[in-house]
Structure to design on (1166 residues):
């Protein structure tokens, strides 16, 4: 218990500091932070539909976050999850609308697997091999591939092969047989939430209980010792980046099949970037990813409600998100603050 | 002569270690003063204090009679102290001149290349250290890179030059050349601190020797008035036991047979040249040699970590040179790599996880790709007890254990699997005496149980006290293979230095 | 196609689009040469773009707007440097944090200060400059003359940066710190100070680039208007092998891609495909097609001084 407490102490502290700074910003700009946070909380958890929408929002964050966490566990920074998410969404959409007459138990898995394979190749092949054999840094290559993916999808949608007839740049709707049904009517919550939770349990098992996870983590911590132990280091780099892409792609597919049902230009809301934040706050623990995704999902849904009811611009959620990550990354700030505090106390005692 | 540098009662603590403990040292003008000590004796810490990189916790430094209170290397440099680190502090992509003047560029805002080159040519003339100022450092040989380091010190008007293990990376020729330079500098009134753990070199070049042991200075001697045995005793702290108690040499079949093996490094330079030797079961084959004479490349080739150029490696009469590393482990080969933290362990894995680092895939520990943690923990508690790994909690991260206990994890993994062949590279590096004795006992026990052992060490004492046969490697060539009982220090030393003819003479 | 290429508008647009890439690319060169990966340039640009409009609007002077943008941009850069250099936090993660913060913060301020109608239409702009003689040359004059003052400032800064980095003592020291900080420290150089300098310069250049977007090209701020230019600038810097001229060359190439895609507005296919090019080229440069692009050896690695 003590161990768990110790490991979540820093992230919680980061969240608290970020909320305090958020309050200061609101005070300076003339809002009441208590009212704002109250309405944010109600927006996220106040009613059953609100809870459902928060959970729905968490689904892509959990699954993509797992993908990012896998890469981090293997010592790799997949900053291009956004693009892999797009690739997954593209393939799922395409399979979703082009195949007719399939029963749902074939159509849905087909779309999901197709999306996972495509995104896995996208995330794994170029950045993976580039990293493994030329040492090209995966932060840059995954980021670049991400932009390529995003422009590629714009190409498909804007007068491209996936554009629906008409003038709106969007794809056709997927067939009913490919739709993951909604759990609660008039909310976005689909059975995809179970896919997300199953994925988290699976990734936990994979990373901590299997030979494959053992190897990926070993390579992540120390490539040289892993090589000396007889492991295939380049293969593990490629595999972990692919696996990372597979989950980002799954997330895109689940979002299409469960929520959006078609692809359009502004479809992602930056889930691929928030997923990095999710993984970081969870310290790359797959179970932690679920909770950290819930937090950011709540910030997302709550902030919309806050904007309507407390008139505080919803972008405050991004401000808080950025601050949380800043303090998680720069965790030495706590030590600095502590020593400053101690010094001040001493001076007070002295005077 | 008068004292240039005085070190009075310096103490420096690191977390858990007293790296320097009441150290005293006096260096006169124009003398070559050797600091002798084993790895971890505190030599480098002392030098970093003199050079201003570390601040001492207590004690006093005097230079030219003036008390020094250094806040950084720039102040040491200003006073006239120069240092050549064991790992060169050079920037490979910059030119020789840029490296030398860096941090003390000649005047102005703009970099004055002409002036810089001129100054360097002048210094290199004065001190007889030829160099091309416009060459890129990455294109220079190790010996020339060292020369750049020395020039760097003199560009800053050093009166005291600290050379930290300067011969570790040099060929014998380059070493001789360096000694020539050192004598030359001495004649020009420069004082030199020469750090080494090689007795012969200390004997050859120094005027005085200060011996360090476990963070303390244990004595300063005039080199002429001492001998290697006395220095060795001071360094190790007791009469050196040259022969451990060892059962009768009783070799069995050939386990490892290497024939005409040639291996190249990354730059495609041949580092191992036509090497041949056999190791039998029940014997320890020691490989002696100065660091960097092809040992690393040879071992990596034997383990499949580096491709070979030509030759044959046979294990129990089967060719294994094409097998990947893991397959070699599976055949019953074990390997204790040189750098336990970088090569032997995953510091952020638990002790239990580290104990299966090579066997996690075997049916013993995993089924259908799932690790059987019950068995992993059983194994861990057994090994922790058998090899006395402390603390005994195998869920701790390896990085939280002391160096000696980290090495015991590796030992438990590699020796505990009853290998038919064990390749051990510097297995006692940086260990305290107790741990060394334990590891030696284990190796001998393994030998008596019929394993073949290849022991690579830079410590001659270790090689001589354990080995049944000794191969000496120099510049990638096995100079000779000697009988462990009759081999002498002198003879091995000469072979290590590459002198076969001289060695033969000693034999006669 | 020929018509498009002979249209001087394409080429002046290339220059205009290259400027907000070249400036942060130049900044990134300083930062990375000193050993700090600064992806926060995206966020710094965005924040600078906002404050340029804000200060220009409040003071009625575009120049004071630019100055304000620079001050705010450099404050953010120094905070980044403090966390990255002094507290040795992960540079990429920090950069992301700042970018997310910047996106939210500027949008939040836009809404609270200016309301949902956007920034005022009477915000002053930085002037365009006509160059005598050159402006009268046909074709060339239309491209090289009449650009924003920032475009000319950028060109001066490129030459100045190249001189600074490769021909001054301070430049030599910055490069040394990014290659081998330990060696630099033993040569008596203050590694931490120079890394702050590198990051501060990246903040300065990014801030000018950001101000150019909001009060050079336009006279308004809109949400996320930097739209990934900080990242493309990073790509341009890598493609230009961490040199000022190389970065400028890459920025021109990427700017050309953008300008061309604007000209091809109607045929969506070629537009989006062309926009992919900069990213594909950067990946190719990294894996070594056509001479490998090698980063400074200690780039992105925090350094703790020995003392």
């Amino acid at each position: 218990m003590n161990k768990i407490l110790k490991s979540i102490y820093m992230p919680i502290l980061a969240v608290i500091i970020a909320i305090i700074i958020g309050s200061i910003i609101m005070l300076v700009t003339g809002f009441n932070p208590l009212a704002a946070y109250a309405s944010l909380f109600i927006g996220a958890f106040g009613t059953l539909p609100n809870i459902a929408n928060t959970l729905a929002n968490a689904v892509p964050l959990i699954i993509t976050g797992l993908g990012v966490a896998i890469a981090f566990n293997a010592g790799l920074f997949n900053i291009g999850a956004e693009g892999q998410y797009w690739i997954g969404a593209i393939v799922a959409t395409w399979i979703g609308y082009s195949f007719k007459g399939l029963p749902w138990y074939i159509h849905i898995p087909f779309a999901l697997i197709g999306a996972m394979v495509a995104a896995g190749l996208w995330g794994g092949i170029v950045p993976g091999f580039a990293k493994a054999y030329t040492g090209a840094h995966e932060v840059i290559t995954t980021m670049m591939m991400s932009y390529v993916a995003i422009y590629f999808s714009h190409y498909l949608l804007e007068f491209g092969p996936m554009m629906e007839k008409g003038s709106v740049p969007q794809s056709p709707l997927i067939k009913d047989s490919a739709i993951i049904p909604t759990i609660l009517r008039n909310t976005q919550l689909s059975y995809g939430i179970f896919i997300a939770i199953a994925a988290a349990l699976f990734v936990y098992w994979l990373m901590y209980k299997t030979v494959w996870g053992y190897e990926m983590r070993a390579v992540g911590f120390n490539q040289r010792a892993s090589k000396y132990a007889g492991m295939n280091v380049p293969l593990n780099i490629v595999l972990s980046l692919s696996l990372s892409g597979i989950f980002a792609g799954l997330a895109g597919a689940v979002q299409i099949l469960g929520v959006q049902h078609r692809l359009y230009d502004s479809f992602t809301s930056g889930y691929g970037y928030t997923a990095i934040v999710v993984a970081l706050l969870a310290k790359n623990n797959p179970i932690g990813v679920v909770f950290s995704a819930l937090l950011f999902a709540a910030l997302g849904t709550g902030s919309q409600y806050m904007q309507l009811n407390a008139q505080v611009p919803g972008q405050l959620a991004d401000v808080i998100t950025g601050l949380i990550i800043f303090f998680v990354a720069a965790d030495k700030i706590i030590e600095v603050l502590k020593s400053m505090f101690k010094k001040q106390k001493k001076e007070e005692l002295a005077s | 002569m008068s004292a240039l540098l005085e070190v009075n009662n310096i103490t420096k603590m690191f977390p858990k270690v007293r790296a320097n403990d009441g150290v005293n040292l006096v260096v006169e003008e124009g003398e070559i003063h050797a600091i002798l000590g084993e790895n971890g004796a505190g030599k480098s810490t002392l030098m970093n204090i003199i050079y201003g990189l570390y601040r001492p916790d207590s004690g006093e430094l005097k230079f030219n009679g003036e008390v020094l209170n250094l806040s950084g290397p720039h102040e040491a440099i200003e006073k006239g102290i120069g240092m050549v680190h064991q790992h060169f502090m050079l920037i490979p992509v910059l030119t020789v001149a840029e490296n030398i003047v860096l941090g003390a560029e000649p005047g102005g805002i703009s970099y004055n290349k002409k002036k810089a080159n001129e100054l360097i040519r002048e210094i290199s003339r004065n001190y007889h250290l030829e160099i091309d100022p416009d060459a890129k450092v990455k294109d220079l040989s190790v010996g020339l890179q060292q020369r750049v380091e020395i020039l760097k010190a003199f560009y800053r008007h050093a009166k005291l030059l600290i050379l930290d293990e300067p011969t570790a990376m040099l060929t014998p020729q380059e070493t001789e050349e360096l000694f020539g330079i050192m004598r030359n500098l001495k004649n020009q009134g420069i004082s030199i601190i020469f750090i080494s753990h090689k007795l012969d070199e200390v004997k050859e070049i120094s005027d005085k020797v200060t011996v360090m042991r476990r963070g303390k200075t244990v004595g300063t001697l005039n080199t002429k008035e001492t001998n290697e045995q006395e220095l060795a005793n001071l360094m190790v702290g007791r009469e050196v036991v040259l022969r451990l108690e060892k059962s009768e040499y009783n070799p069995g079949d050939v386990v490892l047979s290497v024939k005409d093996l040639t291996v190249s490094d990354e730059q495609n330079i041949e580092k191992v040249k036509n090497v041949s030797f056999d190791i039998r079961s029940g014997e320890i084959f020691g490989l002696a040699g100065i660091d960097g004479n092809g040992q690393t490349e040879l071992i990596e080739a034997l383990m499949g970590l580096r491709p070979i150029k030509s030759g044959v490696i046979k294990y129990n009469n089967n060719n294994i040179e094409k097998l990947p590393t893991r397959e070699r482990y599976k055949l019953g080969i074990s390997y204790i790599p040189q750098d336990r933290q970088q090569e032997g362990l995953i510091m952020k894995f638990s002790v239990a996880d580290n104990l299966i680092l090579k066997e996690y895939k075997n049916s013993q520990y995993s089924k259908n790709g799932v690790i059987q943690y019950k068995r992993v923990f059983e194994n861990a508690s057994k090994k922790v007890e058998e090899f006395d790994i402390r603390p005994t909690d195998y869920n701790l991260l390896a990085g939280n254990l002391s160096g000696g206990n980290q090495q015991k994890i590796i030992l438990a993994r590699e020796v505990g699997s009853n290998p038919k062949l064990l390749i051990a590279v510097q297995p006692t590096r940086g260990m305290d005496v107790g741990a060394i004795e334990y590891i030696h006992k284990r190796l001998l026990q393994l030998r008596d149980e019929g394993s073949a052992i290849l022991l690579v060490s830079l410590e001659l004492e270790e090689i001589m006290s354990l080995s049944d046969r000794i191969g000496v490697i120099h510049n990638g060539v096995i100079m000779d293979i000697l009988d462990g009982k009759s081999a002498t220090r002198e003879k091995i030393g000469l072979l290590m230095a590459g002198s076969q003819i001289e060695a033969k003479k000693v034999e006669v | 196609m020929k018509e498009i290429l002979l249209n001087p508008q394409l080429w002046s647009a290339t220059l205009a689009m290259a400027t907000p890439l070249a400036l942060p690319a130049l900044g990134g060169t300083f930062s990375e040469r000193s050993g700090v990966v600064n992806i926060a340039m995206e966020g710094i640009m965005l924040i600078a773009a906002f404050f340029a409009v804000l200060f220009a609007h409040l003071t009625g002077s575009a120049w004071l707007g630019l100055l304000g943008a620079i001050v705010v941009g450099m404050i953010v850069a120094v905070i980044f440097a403090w966390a990255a250099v002094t507290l040795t936090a992960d540079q990429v993660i920090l950069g992301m944090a700042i970018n997310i913060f910047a996106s939210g913060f500027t949008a939040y301020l836009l809404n609270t200060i200016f309301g949902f109608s956007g920034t005022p239409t009477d915000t002053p702009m930085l002037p365009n400059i006509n160059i005598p003689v050159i402006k009268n040359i046909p074709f060339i004059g239309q491209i090289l003359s009449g650009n924003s003052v920032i475009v000319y400032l950028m060109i001066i800064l490129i030459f100045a940066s190249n001189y600074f980095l490769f021909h001054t003592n301070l430049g030599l020291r910055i490069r040394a710190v990014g290659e081998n900080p330990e060696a630099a420290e033993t040569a008596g150089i203050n590694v931490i100070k120079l890394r702050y300098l590198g990051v501060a310069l990246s903040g300065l250049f990014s801030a000018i680039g950001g101000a150019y977007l909001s009060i050079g090209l336009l006279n308004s701020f809109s949400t996320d208007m930097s739209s990934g230019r900080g990242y493309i600038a990073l790509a341009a810097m890598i493609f230009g092998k961490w040199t000022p001229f190389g970065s400028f060359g890459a920025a021109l190439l990427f700017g050309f891609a953008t300008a061309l895609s604007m000209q091809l507005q109607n045929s969506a296919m070629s537009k989006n495909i062309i926009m992919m090019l900069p990213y594909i080229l950067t990946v190719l440069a990294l894996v070594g097609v056509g001479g490998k692009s090698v980063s400074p050896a200690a780039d992105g690695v925090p350094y703790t001084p020995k003392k």
